[in-house]
From TrEMBL:
SUPFAM superfamilies referenced in this protein's UniProt entry, alphabetically: ATPase domain of HSP90 chaperone/DNA topoisomerase II/histidine kinase (SSF55874), Homodimeric domain of signal transducing histidine kinase (SSF47384)
Class in the EC hierarchy, top level: transferase
TM region(s), chain numbering: 12-34
Subcellular location as annotated: Membrane
Keywords: Kinase, Membrane, Phosphoprotein, Transferase, Transmembrane, Transmembrane helix, Two-component regulatory system
Species per Swiss-Prot/TrEMBL record: Thermohalobaculum xanthum
Catalytic activity of the protein: ATP + protein L-histidine = ADP + protein N-phospho-L-histidine
Domain Histidine kinase: 246-454
GO cellular component, one term: plasma membrane
Segments forming domain HAMP: 187-238
Protein name: histidine kinase
InterPro entries given in the database record: 2CSK_N, HAMP_dom, HATPase_C_sf, HATPase_dom, His_kinase_dom, HisK_dim/P_dom, HisK_dim/P_sf, Sig_transdc_His_kin-like_C
Amino acid sequence: MTERAPSIAVRLGLAVALVLAVGGLGAALAALAYGREAAREAYDRLLAGAAFDIARSVSVSAGAVAVDIPVSAFELLALAPEDRVVYRVIDREGATVTGYDLVPPPPRASQGAEVAFYGAEFGGEPVRLAAVRRRFAERAYSGEVAVVVGHTLRARSTLAWDIARKAMWLAAAGGLCLVVLTAAAVRSALGPLRRVEAALAGRRPEDLSPLDVETPREIRATVGAINGFMARLARRMDAMQAYIADAAHQLRTPVAALSAQAELAAEEADPERLRALAARIRGCAAGLGRLTDQLLNQALVMHRADAVPREELDLRMVAIRVAEASDHDLASTPEDLRLDLPEDRVSVEGDALSLIEATKNLVNNALRYGVPPVTITVRAPGAIDVTDRGAGLPEATWEQAGQRFARSEANAQGGAGIGLAIVRAVAEAHGGRMVFSRPARGGFRATLDLGAAALGDGAKGGPQ
């Protein structure tokens, strides 16, 4: 049992889920990076504000640096309640005026900057520091005083994760909306397929007409393929029904004649008349056998018309095989059947068995009803002529020859016309035609013209 394949909706759902997973991971990383940057800028401003407040409170008294740390500075630093606050005021000699001695001074590279931010460790914990320098140029004191303010990173991390978490919640909500919209879009997109399914399921078995369903452009090719398949199936069913009708029509008369002759023979007591009836029965049986062979060949040709792929072949080889397979009992001498083949290959694309069968029917008809010699001629770009010296079919019957139930004056005596039907069907299956003509030197010529299937460079030509 064939494993059930996943549906289109499942495949699209998995694809969307994969895209959302990758996109969600990227959004989470981006949100975390943005949260860290936003938290850094926010708390760096707090540090800078506190540092400036403290720097403004620095003064020089009696040649010494004095600091009266304002309450506003600690109020700013208190906005990060979970963090440990550190500070240090450093005079021009590098000594600590107030604060923690373990707070590292600002790097030398930051000199000249209005405010310098840098990271360090304090008490085994990472801290973020902001340094502000204030220059004094007084008689009692000349030089810079550095004010360093910092705190630990707990509030920063909390804010960064809070921003990232909120962004991920928004992304998850957006992803859920996207999944719902995708499911609705898939259901809407598959609507035309459901209409096609309903149109097919609601049909009667004998209805093979093309589907007339409004579909998007992407599904038209599928509907076209379905219509093409149904058209081929309709042709096969029509051909099958036609074949059944042909077989019933063609077999009814010879079977009835054979039955009548057998009944007469059963009641006949005269030996001479019984032998005559036996000869007629033998002739009827032989004709019925030929008719049966033709009907079987017709069924074979009908089947191969759509079922067998075309291949490149040489019409000269077709003619040679026809000459070998023709009914030599109809030819009284070897000269009654001739071949006229060109030196160069005559390539066509077709079914060799069907072409052989069609040409063989033309040859057997010519041997049976024409006047020998019968000549098989192969011409470029793709045609096989069968010519004899007889009168052939009357021109008035050329158009109807090969059609269902068609009978001509030439085959009225025992012929059923199925051979020409086979030739016509093979020609049409190869995109060609069956053509009759009368050569200038006399006689009758039947042509299997395969111009559409020819692979050569020559132009299509009819009988000359």
